[in-house]
Structure formats: structure tokens, C-alpha cells
Amino acid sequence: MRLGWCPILMRRFPSERSGAPLSWDNIVYDGAGLGYVVSTHQDIRVAQSPQTVFSAYQALSDRTPGDARKWLAHASAHELYEQASCDLAQVYGLRFPLYTQALDVTVRGHAMASPAPGFLNNAGINALRKADGKLLFAHSDLSGYSVFEEAAWWGYEAARKVLG
User: Fold this and answer.
1) Backbone angles phi, psi at 119, to 5 degrees
2) Considering only CA atoms, which of 127, 144, 145 is closest in space to residue 136?
3) Are residues 10 and 64 in the same domain?
4) Residue 108 domain-assigned?
5) Residue 113 domain-assigned (yes or no)
6) Sheet holding 52-59, edge to edge
């Protein structure tokens, strides 16, 4: 069970530790969460954007699915914030809330495809794989296993169809 994708609107960028520049995808060593992504990391600007969004990802793997659902159903806004921002709080400490402006919590049961018996024979997925029109699909979920290599393969297949 996943708490999900939690975009946090930042008033401004927090100060980074020396020797540890902010990246697009940030994973916290020994963190309780799954890391966070910086939405403006690849903006092409002369100056840094005054605001950004940090999207934090959090698994609730420390409890059973039933306990996670119960917790999510009854958690207060403050508890959801604390859970969603656990990695960010570890990196930026007590000053982290000073940088935040808004938080939008999205709850997801799972964020990626998991291979299951019969998936490769799914008619809907097969139709997406065989599409050959103006709209092509290039997603790791077409393989039933969400890893970069699968996405790269389906991207290659889409490009091959476009280029003939």
C-alpha cells in the first residue's frame, strides 16, 4: 500500500547541504520514504525559478494493507503531511515547513504494474502493443513490469513504427 504521490508547493528552494546538490530524483539514505522529485530541475532558465514543486513518494510497507487502509481513512491532514514529507524533513530538518506553501496528497493502492498470470494475453494490453496509427504507446506497463528497460524497449518499438 502506498500513500502515493504528494506534490508539495515550495515557497522557495530550501538551502542544500554543501557537497550534495539538489537533483531531479532524490533518494534519502536510510530514509523512510521513496524519495522526492523536483519538478523544475530541468527548466531552461538563466535564473532559478522562485518556486518549485517537490513530489514526495511514500510507501506504507511498515504495516499490513488492512492497517494501512484504516490509517489512511482516519489520518488527519497533519498526519498525512508528516508521513508524506518524512524524507524532506530528514534532509531539511525543522526548517522544512518554512519553505512549504501547499500539499496535495494522493492515495494510490500501487504505483506500478505487477506481472500476473495471464497478463501477456490481456486483449486490451495486446491492442495497445499492436497500435499502429497516429497514437502509439511506449510504456513499461505494456510488459507488465515497470522498469526502465521495458519502457526503453516500448519506446524503441514506437520509434521503429514511426520511422518505418
Assistant:
1) -60, -40
2) 127
3) yes
4) no
5) no
6) 25-26, 36-38, 52-59, 2-10, 100-103
Q: Are strands 36-38 and 25-26 parallel, antiparallel or unpaired?
A: antiparallel
Query: pLDDT tens across 45-93, in order?
Result: 777 788 889 988 888 888 888 898 899 889 888 898 888 888 999 999 8
Q: Which of 75, 103, 131 is the last residue of a domain?
A: 103
- Domain holding 80, by residue range, is 2-103
pTM of the predicted protein model: 0.62
Of 62, 61, 57, 5, the C-alpha closest to 34 is 57
The DSSP symbol for 108 reads B
C-alpha cell at 37: 522529485
CA atoms within 13 A on the CB side of 101: 11
